[in-house]
Design a protein that fits this description.
The chain has 427 residues and is mainly alpha-helical. It is built from 18 helices and six strands. The structure holds acetyl coenzyme *A. The site of acetyl coenzyme *A has 19 residues, from loops.
Amino acid sequence: MKEVAKLVIDGKELTLPLIEGSQGEKAIDIRSLRQETGYITFDPGLGNTGACRSSITYMDGEKGILRYRGVPIEQLAEHSTFVETAFLLITGQLPTRDELTRTSVYLNDFSPLHENMKAFYQNYPPKAHPMGILSAMVNAMRSFYPELLDIEEEMNKTYLRLISKIRTMAAMAYRISKGERVVYPRPDLCYCANFLNMMFDSVVIPYHVDKDLVKALNVFLILHADHEQNCSTTAVRVVGSGKVNIYSALSAGISALWGPLHGGANQAVVNMLERIHSEGLTVKECISKARDRNDPFRLMGFGHRVYKTYDPRAKIMKKMCDVILSKIRRKDPLLDIVQELEDAALNDSYFKEKNLYPNVDFYSGIVLRAMGIPTNMFTVMFAIGRLPGWIAQWKEDVADPEMRITRPRQIYSGNLKQDYIPIDDRG
Ligand code: ACO
């Protein structure tokens, strides 16, 4: 007999079907609830709500598992490249050698930006945050590259165009913000080496592409490439559900990612560490501030909606941090603070009771600093990494016959009906 859930409301019994995912996760299908009973579910933050079926990313927050299309994140970080991982996420398969070569050719062909797009950058105020610029630029791509035909091959090119150009746009934003000449992409360099070269090459000191830094950047981008139904991915799906073009849906994802509780946490972690360093706060003081409900201070880089154990990405990032810092032989005073904070928090009763562990952002800022990436570009780096995930999720969403325009309900808690009072009678 097929298992069902039974719900008794107002004396009426409702039978609700159960759904089981390929890894055994269970859901109650409540789609008939409102129509049958007049009730809706109430779930602010949607922590108990499955909004879609997805075959892209699997994570188990209790066991600390993360897999893209079934492949463990640890294996991808060790053996894959960002481009290969992006292909896996978007198509569902690891590429053959021929497919990977073809993908690289397209990424190269698409890497320059339309010259007129440069004018946008030049008119932003110098202190504009690069995430705001990036979100606007990706939205603007709809006008510059309108080839959004309903032909699969054209859409596949659009995905690669986006992945390629976001890297050029990010580096260009940085160079222009520093008042420096723009460095154009080079066809002889791979995706990550090309980005580092566009960021740091100079006429005075030509940039030397270091293979360990290229590997570190690949790992950083792979670790950020997807994370199932997080805030920004949900934004992409929600905006996409209105059938807007892909550029606008992705631009919404970039805006959602900017927030300090989400992708902005990597920047917030480094700002927090710098503050601790400059104000000479002790680790004990920080932990007690984080524990204090009346203090808005939170230990940035700790805690996660889904992971109730050590984030598997944070483990890889921590290792990468050691490799990169020993490679460049630079001692970062913030690293000592990070390590002390981690030890103290992991042994603190508040953090233990609430299952608060380091997330990916706890160490990623230190890795990016070591690469020479400025703090205000950290979240942009996250966005470059997350782009293939957003594309894969958007693609899945628009192809899913079960999906409808996203339109949640609410529990209204405002005034009852009241009559309009003309302004002269309002007292
Ligand atoms: N420091 C101190 N206390 C915390 C922290 C933290 N970093 N994170 C959670 N808590 C506490 C909350 O105050 C809350 O306490 P309460 O039960 O007494 O009210 C409890 O733990 C549960 O926290 P919520 O905020 O309700 O958990 P939620 O799942 O909504 O939020 C989030 C998760 C936003 C990640 C949160 O842990 C946080 O703000 N962390 C710091 C920001 C951060 O690192 N974000 C990056 C997330 S990973 C990513 O997006 C890539």
